[in-house]
Amino acid sequence: MSIELDKTQLALWVMRLSTDDEKERAQAEAEFIQWKLLHLEEAKQVEEMMHFSEQMQKLSTRHVIRKETLEHSFSAHKQATSKVKKNWGKLFGLSVLGISTYIAAQVIPYQYYWADVKSDIGEQQHLRLEDGSLLTLAADTAVNFHFDHKQREIELVQGKIMIEVAKDPHRPLVVNTRQAHFTALGTRFIVEQLEERSRLSLLHSKVLAKSVEQPQLEKIVTAGQQLEVSQAGFSNLVQIDSVSVENALQQNQLIAQDMPLTELLEQLKRFHRVHFIYNTKQLAHIKVNAVISVKQSPRQSLELIAMQYPKLSIHSLGDQLILIGLD
User: Fold this and answer.
1) Domain FecR protein: where (predicted)?
2) For strand 206-211 and strand 233-234, is the pairing parallel, antiparallel, or unpaired?
3) Hey, what CATH topology would domain 123-248 get?
C-alpha cells in the first residue's frame, strides 16, 4: 500500500474512530494499530513531514460522527478514490505521527462537561443570574460562576458570552478568561475566548481590562471599541459598530472583518457538528470579509468564500468532514 493511499485511508479512519457505532470504532482502532506495526519504515519517513493540523489534534469527542455519515463517506470514497488521493497529498502533507498522536491523546473537553452552565453546538441560552444580571451564552459556550457576598466572577471556559450587568457597587462583576480579567464599569459587553487570545467588545459604558500574564498591564475600554488580549499583551483598540455586533450574536451571524479563514473555521464549528482538516500555514494569508448566516451549511459558507479566493479547494467526505486547501 502506498503512502498516498495510506493518507486517504487515514482520513476515513479519523471518521471511523469518531463514529457512534462502538463496533465500528473498535475495529478502526485495531486496524490502525496493525497498520503502524506493518509500516515501520513509512512511519519513520512521515515523521519528517509537518505535524498534522492542530485542529485534528484538538477534535472534541463531542463531535460524534453518525454511522449513516460514515457509511456515506465510504461510498463516496469508493467512487472518487483517485481524486481524494490527489488532493490529500497536495493539501496537507499528512503526518502519520500527527494522526497517531491525536488518537493516543485525543482531547476530551472535561472543563466543558464540568462547567456550571453550557450551551450545545448551535444552541444559544439566556440566563437571569442571582444578582439580576442577564447573561447570553452563544453556541458551544461554557461558564463557571463564583458568586458570594464579596464577589461576582464569571469564568469563561470556552465560547462567547454577552452580559448586561446589574449594578452592585460592593461587588464589581468580573469576567475571567485564560488571558485576561475584565471588570465591568458599565452595563453591557461581549467576551469571547479564542484559541490563544480573548476578545472584548464594548456595547455600552466601560470595562477595565487586565492581563493575566502581565498584571501591570491594564486598559479601560469604552463603548464601540474592541480589544484583544494574548500572552504578549494588548492589541490596538479597534472601532466597531456595537449595534451590528450585538445583533450578530443574537441572530446567530458571524461578522468577519479581515478575519483569518482559520479563525472563521473555528467559529463555524460552534454551530455545526463538522470537522475541518487543513494546513494552518497554507491558509494563514487568507482573510475573510463577510457576514455569514450560520443557518447555511459550512460547505455553502466555504463556497461563498471560494468565490473571493478561486484557488481555495473544498472536498467533503460525507457531511461532517471537510478537507480545505489551495490548488
Assistant:
1) 116-207
2) unpaired
3) Jelly Rolls (2.60.120)
